[in-house]
Every structure is written in structure tokens, then in C-alpha cells.
Write a structure and sequence with these properties.
The protein has 419 residues and is α+β, with helices and mostly antiparallel strands. The chain has ten helices and 20 strands. The strands form four sheets. Strands 4-7-2-1-11-14-13 form a seven-stranded mixed beta sheet. A five-stranded mixed beta sheet has the order 16-17-18-20-19, covered by helices on one side. The chain has a four-stranded antiparallel beta sheet with strand order 5-6-3-10. The longest helix is centred in the middle third of the chain and has 22 residues. The radius of gyration is 22 Å and the shape is globular.
Length: 419
């Protein structure tokens, strides 16, 4: 697993991709829990620029066999070990020349087993199923930034309950997952007779080892959900959310209303509370390319908003500790964003220097104007830093906008404030 994470992170820092419109998918999935196996047929929309370029590459689990790839423009395909993430394969689909200006649909049929002991946190077992990007069980674009949205129809026993981002409906042994927000992957969890605890419209599905942790996660999660809706729900409310809380390997992650926590990485209650608020806040941060130099806004706003929520609940001392962590994390980073540097910032910026910049901006603007800027960002499709700076000019003046632009570019002092 360590090598997998290193490979993925290396790709995130090295690959270059531009943001694109959301594309669709339709997946028919048959699961065989006793054999840790799956069979799937995915029909995926391929953007026109890939057709014009002659090919598209998609990540897929290395243990899977691809039975067929078909489509109106498909000329051939090959399955090769990925150079970007060597523990995965790439399905390379070649297209015949075309002058079409619209996207095309490609159908990929594949099957295989999930290695439940691979330490990526994914598994198919007789009683539980956990699938995400970490096993590359579902085809995704190798640029790590093409957003997808669609449906998965799952054939699984009627004694199973399925949890996933978006909406889930079941009819006997058929379960339908319909995503309502774009992501770069497809994730889901299923369990026979799951144990759960609900606090109003926030639910925690947990294993036996997390019975006590589940109560706090449910309480903290509900507080975050209510607070985020209170602040930003006028734009688009998040009616409910759930957490899958398991003692398992692999990373924690969140996709919309679906949060999966590795309980071994929970940390302190304050840390867990902030993580939940951070991930719930992402329901109001607009999707942009994960490889873009503007990506810092998504993480920095979620990080700063969640930290302010921690201050409201736990006090200023707790917030000051987070600020110190931001400064420590961002050591060695000179800037957040520059208009002439088009590459993704590191995690040191996204979760360190970026929120520090927002904190300094609030100090400059005052709480009322900064809150107005934050609400505008969370309510609109803001994907470029220039949009944020222009809005700042409208809410304040050219002087503050120029100062903030210089701060982001590292031309102002990021030195730690006294706290």
C-alpha cells in the first residue's frame, strides 16, 4: 500500500491536465462475495479531445481481465502496466480518425478478484464490501482530473445494504447507485446486517471495534452538517450524510455525502471533528482539475472553514494549535499561487500555506467582508484564482486585491503571526 500511495502522489505532482466538463458512466456490476470477485460492464463517455487525439488511457486493477472494449469509433485496445501507477494497469483505447465534435461512448467489459490483503483498504468478503479508487476497481481517466458522474447497478443479495455517494435504491437483489456530484472515481460500501447509529440525519455505519467511536463521530458529524447547512444551505442544502467507520488499512476519504474513515487514523476528537467538517464543506466547493494551480482554493477554503468551526466549539486555543500546524506543514513553501506557474500546488500549500493566506485575508478585510467573500465562493462555480481576486476587488478595493495577489505569489510575508 505504501508504494501505491507514493505512486499516486508522484502522479499527482507530475502529471499535467486541464479541467474538463463532467462525463457520464453507466456500470452494471455483479459481485461474488464468497470469491472476492466481480464482473462488470462499464459504458463510459469519452470527451471529444481524446477522440481527436486518437486514444484515451484508463486505469484499472492489475488483477482484472478485460474481455472486450467496443464503441462506434473504437479501432483497437491494449492493456499495459501503468508507468504512472505501476501497481495498476492502463486500458489504452485507440480510435479511428473522426471529425466529430461530440463525445462518444465506449463499453468496457472486465472481471477479476480484489486482493483483500493488499493493504489498500478495499475488499470483497462474504459479509462486507468496500470499493474505492484505491483498488482501481472501476475505470478512471489517467489524468486523475476528468470528473465523472453516473449510475452503478449492482447485483447482490437482498440481505445486503449498500451505501455510496449520491442516492441508493434497492429492489430485491438489485441495488442502484446514482451519483449527483462529479468525482474522479466510483466508491461504495455494502454489508450484510450492518450496525449503525443515527443522530438525526447523520448516520455512522461501524464495525464492532468502533462502537464507542461511532457515538462521537455521529455527534460531531451532525454538528458539522447542521453548521455547514446553516452557513451555505441557502445555495444548496445537504440533507443527510453518512460515515463508514471501520478498522481497516488504507486512507480515509470522502465523496459528497459518503465519508469512509479508517478508525486507526482517527487521531484526537478535535482532529476527527475538523476532518468531518472539512469533508462536509467540500459539498459546496466546486470541482476543478485536481492538477490545476487553482486547486488550492478547494482545500484551503474547506480547511479554513473547518478550523473556524473548531474555534467556535473548542475555543481559540484549539484554533491556534491548528494555525501552528499549518505553519509547520508549509515550511519550505514560498508561495500559494502565481498566474504564470501552471502546476498543482503541494499538500503543504493546500493544507498549510493556503489556509494561512485566507486567515491573513480575514485579518485584512474584517470578519463581515471575509464571510461575504466566503459565501460567494461556496455558492458559485469558482474554478480560477483570478475570479476570487476580482470578487475581492468588488468587495473591498484594488489595494487589498493587489496585496492578496502578492501574498499568494509569495511577495508578502507569510511569517507566523503571534498567537
Amino acid at each position: 500500500m505504501r508504494h501505491l500511495l507514493i505512486a499516486i502522489m508522484s502522479c499527482l505532482f507530475i502529471c499535467v491536465a486541464s479541467a474538463t466538463d463532467t462525463v457520464g458512466y453507466r456500470t452494471q456490476l455483479t459481485l461474488s462475495p464468497e470469491d472476492s470477485a466481480l464482473n462488470a460492464v462499464t459504458t463510459l463517455q469519452v470527451p471529444q479531445h481524446y477522440l481527436a487525439g486518437g486514444s484515451v488511457a484508463l486505469f484499472l486493477n492489475q488483477k482484472f481481465s478485460v474481455t472486450s472494449v467496443s464503441g462506434a469509433q473504437v479501432e483497437s485496445y491494449a492493456v499495459e502496466q501503468s508507468n504512472k501507477v505501476p501497481v495498476w494497469n492502463e486500458v489504452i483505447v485507440n480510435f479511428s480518425p473522426t471529425d466529430k465534435t461530440a463525445s462518444e461512448w465506449v463499453q468496457i467489459e472486465y472481471s477479476g478478484t480484489i486482493d483483500n490483503d493488499a493493504q489498500h483498504g478495499n475488499f470483497i468478503s462474504p459479509a462486507k464490501i468496500h470499493l474505492s479508487i484505491d483498488s482501481a476497481w472501476h475505470p478512471i481517466f489517467t489524468d486523475f482530473s476528468t470528473p465523472i458522474r453516473g449510475t452503478v447497478n449492482i447485483e447482490l443479495g437482498d440481505d445486503w445494504k449498500v451505501f455510496a455517494p449520491g442516492q441508493v435504491s434497492s429492489d430485491k437483489n438489485m441495488h442502484r447507485v446514482e451519483s449527483n456530484s462529479p468525482t474522479i472515481d466510483v466508491s461504495l460500501y455494502a454489508e450484510k446486517n450492518p450496525t449503525s447509529i443515527s443522530n438525526e440525519n447523520f448516520t455512522v455505519i461501524h464495525d464492532e471495534s468502533n462502537a464507542e467511536n461511532a457515538e462521537f463521530v455521529a455527534s460531531a458529524g451532525l454538528k458539522c452538517l447542521q453548521r455547514m447547512n446553516q452557513q451555505f444551505g441557502n445555495h444548496a442544502s445537504l440533507d443527510s450524510a453518512h460515515v463508514i467507520l471501520l478498522k481497516r488499512p488504507g486512507p480515509s476519504f470522502a465523496r459528497g455525502n459518503h465519508i469512509s474513515l479508517n478508525s486507526q487514523n482517527l487521531g484526537t476528537k478535535r482532529h476527527t471533528h475538523q476532518y468531518l467538517c472539512h469533508e462536509i464543506a467540500h459539498n459546496w466547493t466546486y470541482f476543478t482539475s485536481a492538477m490545476s494551480h487553482d486547486y488550492w482554493m478547494i482545500e484551503a477554503f474547506a480547511e479554513y472553514i473547518s478550523a473556524r468551526e473548531i474555534e467556535r466549539i473548542y475555543g481559540k486555543e484549539a484554533f491556534d494549535k491548528i494555525v501552528k500546524q499549518w505553519h509547520h506543514r508549509s515550511e519550505g513553501e514560498a508561495y500559494v499561487w502565481r498566474p504564470d506557474t501552471n502546476h498543482r500546488a503541494s499538500h503543504k500549500v493546500n493544507y498549510g500555506l493556503g489556509p494561512v493566506a485566507l486567515m491573513k485575508l480575514q485579518e485584512k478585510l474584517g470578519e463581515e467582508v471575509f464571510n461575504e467573500l466566503t459565501h460567494w465562493y461556496m455558492a458559485n462555480d469558482v474554478t480560477e484564482t483570478e475570479q476570487l481576486i476580482k470578487r475581492l476587488e468588488t468587495l473591498s478595493d484594488h489595494t487589498i486585491a493587489r496585496w492578496f495577489s502578492a501574498l499568494l505569489a509569495g511577495q508578502q510575508n507569510f511569517k507566523e503571526s503571534k498567537v
